[in-house]
Fold this sequence. Notes:
The structure is a single chain. The protein is of the alpha/beta class and 183 residues long. It is 23% helix and 30% strand. It has a 6-stranded mixed beta sheet with strand order 4-3-2-5-6-7, with helices on both faces. A two-stranded antiparallel ribbon has the order 1-8. α1 (17-34) packs across α2 (50-58). It starts with 9 loop residues before the first strand and ends with a helix. The structure holds guanosine-5'-monophosphate and magnesium ion (2 copies). The site of guanosine-5'-monophosphate has 17 residues, from β5 and α3. GO terms for molecular function: guanine phosphoribosyltransferase activity; hypoxanthine phosphoribosyltransferase activity; magnesium ion binding; nucleotide binding.
Amino acid sequence: xxxxxxxxxxxxxxxxxxxxxxxxxxxxxxxxxxxxxxxxxxxxxxxxxxxxxxxxxxxxxxxxxxxxxxxxxxxxxxxxxxxxxxxxxxxxxxxxxxxxxxxxxxxxxxxxxxxxxxxxxxxxxxxxxxxxxxxxxxxxxxxxxxxxxxxxxxxxxxxxxxxxxxxxxxxxxxxxxxxxxxx
Length: 183
Ligand code: 5GP
Ligand code: MG
Ligand code: MG
């Protein structure tokens, strides 16, 4: 791969940096209004949510704590199975806290629904979800994210935290990869 021209591997840009930043500012305003004056602990799901967390949190003109979890979802092939293992747990006791889970994309929703029931068992005051992107299958899941950037079609996207074989996370835009990347 020509690492000097990473951006040119995107064949179709779905969301530009400007669109992403604009939408995250709107979401931050909603979050600020909903949590006005109250406690807020944002929990980012590593590694994909790093960019969303950084920009969403900086869009908030209020105090916020941030913590991180890393989970791995066992699956056959590319689909998650819902069988999840915690690779890195929270450093924070969330009992009595208002928790906002921050994710970059919900596909089947299996990973996140496992995570939500795991977090709920720790007696938080509340647990909500913010995700930048949501795919159609997630609509069938019982977990309903309170904040969604955009609903997208069922295609594989990269950039802004989203990887293909651990690459492309550092792109500022989100899009689909050119076919030559896969071959
Ligand atoms: P699920 O919601 O199916 O349990 O899994 C969600 C995870 O699958 C995301 O956090 C992400 O790591 C990965 N994923 C799902 N759809 C895509 C996609 O279109 N592009 C990329 N790069 N990862 C995806
Ligand atoms: Mg994720
Ligand atoms: Mg990935």
